[in-house]
Amino acid sequence: MPEPVGFFTDSSVCIGCKACEVACKEWNQLEGNTPSWGDGFDNTKQLDAENWRHVKFIDNVPQGEMLTGNGAAWLMMSDVCKHCKNAACMEVCPTNAIVRTEYDTVYIQPSVCNGCRDCISACPFGVIGFSAKTGAAQKCTLCYDRLQANMQPACAKVCPTQSIQFGSLSDLHAKADARLAALHAQGNDKAQLYGRDDSIYGGLNSFFLLMDKPEVYGLPNKENAVLPSRNNFKSYLAAFVAAAIGVFAGVKALSGTPESGGSAAGSA
Amino acid sequence: MTEHFAAAPGWEWWITLYFFSAGLAGGLYVLATIFRLRGTVRDESLARMGFIWAFPLVVLCGIFLTVDLGKPLDFWHMMINTTPGAGGLNWKPWSPISIGTWALLLFSIFSFVAFVFASMVERRARAGEADLSPPGFAKVFNVIGSALGLFLASYTGVVLSVSNQWVWSDSWAIGALFVASGLSASAALMAWLGRSRADASTEARLQRADGYFALLELVALVLFFVTLAMAGALGHTLHGIYWVLWILVVLSLIPPLRALGARAQAAGGALSALVVIAGVLLMRIAVIFSAQY
To answer: Which ranges of B69-135 would DSSP assign to H, the alpha helix?
Structure first.
């Protein structure tokens, strides 16, 4: 059994070059969407069926005088499927198309998925998209085919700043811990690891070093990192109570009486 | 305030129609069963009509659900695990969509059998036979079918809640809302379809039932909005055109609620039935579409 693998994405050294996006599309033969040009450098906007890597630009730096020591910078982060230990997509998938591979990654089997799209509403990171071309849900495979050929994922291979690092989880954890310590030593107090421990979906095989709170990057914090199944009991209970009251009300209203034109059918 | 970053699954018209048909099919079956078990001898005709209409609606459910899939011909993957080397049946009790698939299949069987028997008895009734009372086992069969029908009408809402989508996952009341509204629309539909079969007493009882169901729906609706408000998600369902839809949904509850309050039979049966049914459809449209933008 191979060792669990994953990505460590260090957003502190991401320069927003999008080489990861290009390499991912090239290798996985993704056509991509028509670029969306707006007031910023982000023209892919989101992760979806055609974008399995997406460089987020958090560029809403307020206008103002920047002096030494009070500067503000854009934040950039190459986002990707988190390959969660407790994966919400895998939890709800009715066809069992979403499986955990021998590399401990989360993989959608294209031939098994029938395109019900329940996984899309379950994924808390907005990672999965539906492809009208294939009729299936699609997302990062962590280059499952390349892993089988002992190659590293395409995005990690091309990343010029080593913002995206691939390797065994234990190695990546050690590198991330060292990097975080270095940043804290430099006074970057907001720097934090996201998904390194088990507080977010039991741990993420694709985890991040962030330079601000997770919410700033559009990532759920610990309180909001919840599984869909949390609502099972309450929802079923409410539905059951409503159904029981409905049946009771129906019986009360519809029961025949001698006044209503005859004896009850049950006693006829 | 709860924060969500899930993407929209693109569940639109087919799913809306499926959820709507599921509520009607389940509701009609339940009302037919109640009429059979607790109604008068004359109500048996209306019970048969309910069973006869429930089955085509279930067939529509299957069609809508299948057409919505990205790969409709692979619909059976919901039930059979086609993962290489795995095999066996797909059964995930913690995934409502998985349980719902089986519930739909089972309810289809129950509604088909009820449809066949009701159609046969209907033929006998037209031939003038006197004894048309169903055998005892039919009643037991119908009770089991009703439980499945109620599940079908409600699980569609639970599917939405068991997600990470805003609005849907912010409320646990959607399943309750769907089952209450399904019963309400079914009572309205039954009153309208069965107007030639029902006497004044039956019509009055159906309207009273619809009034109770509408009251239940109103309570579920209040719970839905309260839970959304608590999660800070009201704005995600009351934006754009959707607040107008929600107002129409509330207005559609007025005819059955008025009938509940009045002792006399409410006027405009066909129109009020249409208003109730349209309101139930609008409610599903508002729930499903407003959360996906």
So the answer is: 96-126
B111 in Cβ contact with B54 (< 8 Å)? yes
| Angle at alpha carbon of residue A143, lines to A140 and A147, rounded to 5° | 150
Single out the residue of A25, A21, A68 nearest to residue A42, CA to CA.
Answer: A21
End-to-end Cα distance, chain A: 69
Task: Decide the pairing of beta strands A5-10 and A206-210.
Answer: parallel
Distance in angstroms (rounded) separating the CA atoms of residues A161 and A141:
22
Chain B interface test: which of A90, A93, A96 (most B C-beta within 10 Å): A96
CA-closest candidate to residue B167, choices B250, B68, B286, B279: B286
Confidence of residue B268 (pLDDT cuts 50, 70, 90): low
Does A120 contact B10 at a Cβ distance shorter than 8 Å?
yes
The encoded tokens of residue A120 equal: 């899309």
A268 pLDDT above the threshold of 50 = no
Tokens 């021998």, residue located: A102
| Strand, helix or coil for residue A128 | coil
- Please indicate if any CB of chain A lies within 8 Å of the CB of B169: yes
Q: Is A69 on the interface with B (CB under 8 A)?
A: no
- Torsion of Cα atoms, B231 then B232 then B234 then B237, to 10°: -80
> Tokens 């995206």 belong to which residue?
A164
> Which helix (H) or strand (E) element contains residue B23?
helix B13-38
Which pLDDT score is estimated for A169? 97
